[in-house]
Specification:
A hairpin with a 5-residue loop joins strand 1 and strand 2. The chain has one domain. It contains 3 helices and 2 strands; from the N terminus they run E-E-H-H-H. The protein is 74% helix and 5% strand. It is mostly helical.
């Protein structure tokens, strides 16, 4: 059964799946780009700190950054779609 949009016009299921897929890929790409921008502007190498030095504090900060960026990106995409 097709979903009903706010204009009460039936939207085909394939279109909904396509929209979700495109916005999902867009969100992931924006998240990766945001992480690399943050990696470039920080004064230390996050990857080296995480892999070689096993710095747990950096891991927590990176996780918080990724979650925060994901929340902002998802809110922005929801406003567009």
């Amino acid at each position: 059964m097709p979903a009903i949009s706010p204009t009460n016009v039936a939207v085909p299921l394939w279109r909904l799946i396509l929209d979700v897929s495109l916005f999902g890929v867009l969100g992931i790409v924006l998240l990766i780009v945001g992480y690399y921008i943050w990696e470039a502007i920080t004064p230390y190498n996050n990857r080296r700190e995480l892999h070689e030095n096993k710095n747990l504090a950096v891991a927590v900060v990176v996780a918080a950054l990724i979650i925060g960026m994901a929340m902002v990106i998802s809110a922005a995409i929801l406003r567009v779609g």
